[in-house]
Give the backbone structure.
Amino acid sequence: MKIKANGIQIEVEDTGADGSQNDRPVVLLIMGLGMQLIAWPPALVQGLVDAGFRVIRHDNRDIGLSQHFDHLGVPNLVWATLQHRLGLSPKAPFTLSDMAADAVGVLDALKIERAHIVGVSMGGMIAQRVAIAAPKRVLSLTSIMSSSGARGLPRAKPQVLKALLSKPASHAHDDIVDHYINLYTVIGSPDFVVHEAELRTRILAGITRSFRPVGTMRQMLAIVADSTRAGELGRIQCPTLVVHGAADPLVPLACGKDTARRIPGARLEVIKGMGHDLPPGVVSEVLRVMLPFLKQVHP
């Protein structure tokens, strides 16, 4: 369903709500760079619902069925990255703080006072921003395969960045699917392999619903431009769980460790053999550590 949140149109899925809409504690799931709400594995959503939670998912701005921002132009990522490496803060068409305000706007539109905030990758960064900016709305924070954004943290390996920044051979669906299969193979979990046929089906469903590479570029620039978040993480007061894969080739484990170190009282859970994706085996491990955490916060 489409709702108006933070002054823009946001596509939302609401799962597990009962008739009164009020009895279940809410988990707000925030997806990563260029990823749509359907990228959340059904097993993870259902696991939360079965545990007694109402699950809210949304397409971040400029992606999926939420409002697009093509009028803001195509960013120069090469120049922005160079500025960042020189210690400068590039100007982004919109910021992670804007995307965090969108997430809070979703809660406002659905009349949800407080929620558990869960984000993966860029979504973890947005979730951190929500916890910083709107502490009274956050029951808990779970940051998965994400980073504090601090300078000096290890970067992805060159072959991973090459796969991330490459483009499909053409606009044909088969070429786009092949491109993402290559990317997900490079960044995926070595101990939790997904069969190519399953991966192909999932990718095709995503690009059929929406394919917005320029929106992904603007989101990427928002990540690069968010240069002060690491220094603000100490302000987070809610219970925090940081989950990271020991084999993450895109956002190395040191990034998760740094996030947990900077948030007072944060708990770090490292999953062996997990890369930068959510295959079924990883979903089981994430639920294993996340459900007790959420229930401890909200029995």
User: Anything to note?
Assistant: The mean pLDDT is 93. Strands lie at 2-5, 8-15, 26-30, 54-58, 115-120, 138-144, 240-245, 267-271. The first strand starts at residue 2 and ends at 5.
